[in-house]
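thread: overnight batch results

M.L. [08:02]
morning all. the overnight job finished for the chain we discussed friday. pasting input first so we're all looking at the same thing
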Amino acid sequence: MAQAQPQSPEQSTAQLSELRDIHLPLPIEVGLPAPGWWLVALLLLMGLVSGLVWLVNRWRAGRYRRQARAELADLLVSWQTHHDHQAYLQALQQLLKRVALTCFPRDRVASLTGEAWVAFLDRSSGGSDFSMGAGEILIDGGYKPAVAIDPGLLGLHQAALRWLNRHHPKHLDRSEDSSLAGHGRAA
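M.L. [08:03]
and the structure it wrote out:
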């Protein structure tokens, strides 16, 4: 093993002068990304725009439901304040009919009353709150004394709220298909 000989200061200075200075890397060129990245950016932008359009349309389509729920809440407050059962039933019938006319064809809804109206409410929400629940009051509640109506009004209010949240034409299509199949006709 050979040992390194100590160098004189002049030799080390000479060797140091031969070293090149530290070179900084070249600046990064700012260029356009590859075409694939432009395609990805375009697809993301289109997805974002279509998602926003869908959300706005959904919000607008649900406006009548929000307004109806607010009106239903006002009806309940009015009933709790005045205890006028007949006025509550009449206003509720009008509210439900207006909402139904907004969402369903006029010729299928406008003439419905009594049991046919209650059956429509059940079919259009996919439930049975009106024909076998608290909503039965709508059939002949306008002709009953207030004592017979009072216990069921809060249940009726809840049934109406559920209907406002769940009604949809797809429920009618399903119920009509099943009723046609039940009568031996092809759907």
